[in-house]
Design a protein that fits this description.
alpha+beta, single chain, seven-stranded mixed β-sheet, binds adenine, about 375 residues, about 45% helix
């Protein structure tokens, strides 16, 4: 931006006359100089190859930076290339992802790695459209990879950026509406700088993460956009951004059993479609059972069962479903017949955690294994 134009914007700003586009344009200069001094040192920022940026951005969807850091390092050490990811066994991949949640992300990573090998010679494609065509990559992730790894001038609008921009503009449209995000992407694409696109996009994300924070009062005194932010000027941070109501989550009741036989514990592989597809779980049935109902419900004859002891209730919240779990520890005598052979199988307690991906949803009980 020329000095002349910048001065003109400052004058307009004082007069409160900036239109939407001018206000958005005025963000670049203060944002870029702020980011230079305030970017957090994060593992994926040191060496932003397309592969590292891709993996980090997928992990960062729905997951906090601090939670992602150790997973990212471990994943990179285990699967350092697209080729390694394309060839990994599913159980090993799920084990690397265990605890991060939203396992479809990991399944899509492998699918995309196979496509990248087949169609793009093993290198992530350097165009927004080709990135967008890969499984698990939406407009945000395509924009993040294109701008951070390839320097292309495309926006990367995630929840952080939606919050920052709607506040700068004091825009009261519902940021949960896809049309609102699409408009913001169009507007940012028009005005974002052609250079330093990585710093620009990550600067917006960073302001959203550490200044214009999602919960509680924003730290406006530290914000590079303080002087152009209409929400700041009008004192509206409690009202903006507007988020429409989410659909209510369905509650499902479950009874989960930690079935022990000597040094072994029973586990079961989930079906390969649906929630937590292909992952392992502790045996469970729908509904909350009383202790005397447990053996029958799990196909265990009474003479096989030594004891049924209640465990604490637990809850796990997915995006669309909540599990309310009752738990029992069941001790079995060695030997004896099982009526539901095949419903679960026994593995050594010491081996289960190292070898079988057990999702965090069962943590209250798997931690007792
Ligand atoms: N959240 C999503 N993408 C991010 C990034 N590149 N850096 C920090 N936080 C992020």
């Amino acid at each position: 931006m020329t000095k002349h134009l910048y001065d003109r914007i400052q004058v307009l700003e004082r007069e409160d006359e900036l239109d939407r586009q001018q206000r958005l344009k005025a963000m670049a200069r203060p944002l870029l100089s702020w980011y230079e001094g305030h970017a957090r040192a994060l593992p994926w920022r040191d060496d932003p190859t397309p592969y590292r940026v891709w993996i980090s951005e997928i992990m960062l969807q729905q997951t906090r930076v601090e939670a992602v850091k150790p997973y990212f390092e471990r994943f990179m050490a285990a699967l350092p290339t697209v080729q390694a990811l394309a060839a990994v066994e599913d159980d090993r991949l799920m084990k690397l992802w265990e605890g991060l949640g939203y396992y479809t992300r990991a399944r899509n990573l492998k699918k995309a790695a196979l496509m990248i090998t087949e169609r793009h010679g093993g290198e992530l494609p350097g165009s927004y459209e080709a990135l967008l065509a890969l499984p698990g990559i939406g407009s945000y992730t395509a924009g993040a990879i294109a701008s951070i790894a390839f320097g292309l001038p495309v926006p990367a609008v995630d929840g952080n950026v939606l919050r920052v921009i709607s506040r700068v503009l004091a825009d009261r449209e519902d940021i949960r509406q896809p049309s609102v995000k699409a408009r913001m992407e169009r507007e940012l694409r028009e005005i974002m700088p052609r250079e330093r696109t990585s710093q620009y996009n990550q600067g917006l994300i960073e302001v959203g993460a550490i200044v214009c924070v999602p919960g509680g009062e924003p730290r406006c005194g530290e914000c590079p956009m303080e002087s152009i932010c209409l929400t700041r000027r009008q004192g509206l941070w409690k009202e903006i951004p507007v988020r429409g109501a989410l659909k209510k989550r369905k509650v499902e009741e479950l009874t989960v059993c930690l079935i022990r036989r000597g040094e072994e514990v029973a586990i079961h592989k989930r079906p390969d479609t649906g929630l937590l597809a292909s992952l392992y779980e502790l045996p469970n049935v729908t509904g909350h059972l009383e202790p005397d109902q447990v053996p029958g419900a799990f196909g265990l004859s009474a003479d096989l069962v030594e004891a049924v002891e209640p465990l604490p209730a637990a809850k796990h919240i997915f995006s669309h479903v909540e599990w309310h779990m009752a738990g029992y520890a069941v001790s079995l005598r060695e030997g004896g017949e099982m009526n539901r052979e095949g419903a679960f199988f026994f593995v050594e307690r010491s081996a289960v955690k190292g070898e079988y991906p057990l999702p965090g949803a069962f943590k209250a009980y798997t931690k007792l294994i």
